Amino acid sequence: MPSMIDAYNVTRFDRTERELQEYLMFCLAVAGKKATVIATKLNELLSRMQPGEDPFSYVLRLQSHGLLEAELMRVRMGKYSLLRHAYPTIATRFSGRLSSVPISELETVKGIGPKTARYFALHSRARPGDIAVIDTHVMKYLRHLGHAVPNRLPTRSNYGRLENLMIAAARSSGMGMAGFDLAVWSHYASGGMTPLPSLEQHG
Fold first, then answer.
1. How far is 137 from 166, CA to CA, in rounded Å?
2. Could you report the per-residue pLDDT of 86-128, keeping only the tens digit for each?
3. Other residues' Cβ atoms within 10 Å of the Cβ of residue 44
4. What's phi and psi for 155, nearest 5 deg?
5. How far is the first Cα of the chain from the last one, in angstroms, to the nearest whole number?
6. Among candidate residues 133, 140, 146, the one with its CA nearest the CA of residue 181
7. Residues 62, 49: contact at Cβ < 8 Å?
8. Cβ atoms 26, 62 nearer than 8 A
9. 42, 57, 90, 195 — which has fewest CB within 10 A?
10. What is the pLDDT of residues 152-200, one digit of tens each?
């Protein structure tokens, strides 16, 4: 049985291949959903793996028997049309190399956009490069800083501008991006119970 994703502490740079597979499956399913709920549902989905089986092998076994969508529905995962195609795709294409698959290659999978690809890399790689995950919490934060931010989640065409703003804010805080991102998420997810990162004052 896999270890359940900790939605409040997703940053881990020592994940095994098996754990990376589980984490990418989580990243695909969690967009627009409550992280704690999806972590529980994914854990339930993978609870029927056979001894020695990894998540990707399990997905491909279910697909080969025509059972993948039924299992997704059993745990009420949601996004059935997307995941029944995306899960076998990532299992086929990325098995054994998740620690190094380029972000641009992750983005070629339907269902993995700039945000999902970066969310996976940022919280699973010690040196993911200069990247930022732009989600609703981050957009609230950028508005809090006084930046002009669109009402809807960014498209590929305007993602880069918002990403650069978040990268600059993280640098000003003196924190690494993974920790900075988690602090911003925790603040808004907790209804303001945890503090926002402090930024250096430049005069």
1. 12
2. 999 999 999 999 999 999 999 999 999 999 999 999 999 999 9
3. 15
4. -95, 175
5. 54
6. 133
7. no
8. no
9. 195
10. 888 888 899 999 999 999 999 999 998 999 899 899 988 999 999 988 7
